[in-house]
Amino acid sequence: MPGRNLLYFLHEGLVNVVRHGFMSFAAVGTTAACLLIMGTFSLLAVNADSILHRLETENEILAYVDESYTDEDTLALKAELEKIPDVLRADFISKEEAVVDFAAQYPEEELFQSLDPEILRDRYSIHIVNIERISQISEAIRSLPGIVKVNAYEDVAGGFVTLRNITSLVSLVLIALLFVVSVFITANTIKLTTLDRRDEIAIMRMVGATNAFIRWPFVVEGAFLGGLSALVAYALQTLIYNSIANGVTRNDLLKLLRIVPYENLSRIVLTGFLLSGLLIGVGGSLSAIRKYLEV
Amino acid sequence: MIRLKDVEMSYDNGNKAIRGISFTIDDGEFAFLVGPSGSGKSTIIKLLTGEVEPSAGRIMVNGFSTSNIMPRQIPLMRRTLGVIFQDFRLISNRTVYDNLAFAMRVVNTPTRSIRERINYCLDLVGLTNKASNYPTELSGGEQQRVAIARALVNNPDTIIADEPTGNLDPERSLELMELLVRINELGTTMLVVTHEKALVDLFGKRVIMIDEGHVVSDQVGGYRLHDEENAYAGGSDYAWT
Asked: Any idea what the CATH number is for the domain that residue A78 is in?
């Protein structure tokens, strides 16, 4: 874009937006709605992923050691456990430590404060790096000689994995679909402008304007519509996300989900919306102007 | 300079619009291209402006070979041409001045040069006092003069006028043709496409007649302007027997 013409292109692009006010409004509304839906599903996927990640890092598989094993044999199991693929580490907890932990969990229960450690087993707290493989890892632990019982929240983890996979898939499909819809609508809006200005375009071509020169005002128009849509979508997304996050935090049960704070996401959301909006706008305008630039 | 050598042109539907045409218009020359409807006049204009490519033969326009021109060179070639249309093709929501400035701005002319050149061109076509009018506020003849000024603003080597008098009454047609002759005398090569035989005859310029895609005659002739016996009163299209 030559500097001398920058103001001209900006002026022409903005004039087009204002001249087709209703269609511009419709294009901004629709594109913003599409971006908002895309954003909502993406944020849902981000939260599901975050919960899964937390489950991976915080949750543990407990593997109980056979009482007949000597201390030496029991400690030797650590190496065996850490050899299993996707196991991050295995921490030994003796029955004495387990009793102390147990008592600490129920400080008001007097009965639990003086338990005999012999009623419990030595155990390993096992952290894994890929929760999607929790069933296979549990099975591998179970099959080790000396392990008599394994506690793993496979159903809960499986539920979150399924939720993440579904939201990721739905997000991808929706993003692709809504992207095409948005490009189509923006292209149609700009087609109105090109129809309105077809005489001007013909004159521009006839006097020797380059395709780039003819294209720029429409690209500016598309970029403006896309950028405006992104800002509208961002404002609505911020409102909706914060409302939902506040609702979840106030609910005693749901607050365990620990929604990712919007402050951590807002910059990414804004950048994503702006890039998508500009892509939709510019893509739509290039598609609309294409046939006028054939010769 | 315009040169066509053995040019043929067929449309996608198989219609052969041009069947082996050759002629040359030298720099500074004035030529009429005449012929009945469907004879191939419009196709020749499209070939000269690079809107369509010939099926065979060679075309040179002001140093550019339009028969094998690179797409990115087409705008450069068009900058050497000024084109005038029968329906004026002015932008109705821009003033006369802005219509001309628009044609200059799109080829990256600096703003300072735009004002100077527009004033010169409006003076040449006699419309200095109409610069701030909109096209709809002008008569047909005035609108066509604006179109001529627009064709001139970028200082083209050649002007191609496609039926420039088609929408004008006989008196305005004559005035307009005189204006084109005057511009030609200032050095611009002129190719005027028309089917108004009586008007062509008045000027005694070179006349290239085409019919069914062939050149059927190419000669200098016709009555002279101000020949009272054959005073121009309009009408009399080219009839082909």
From this structure: 3.30.70.3040
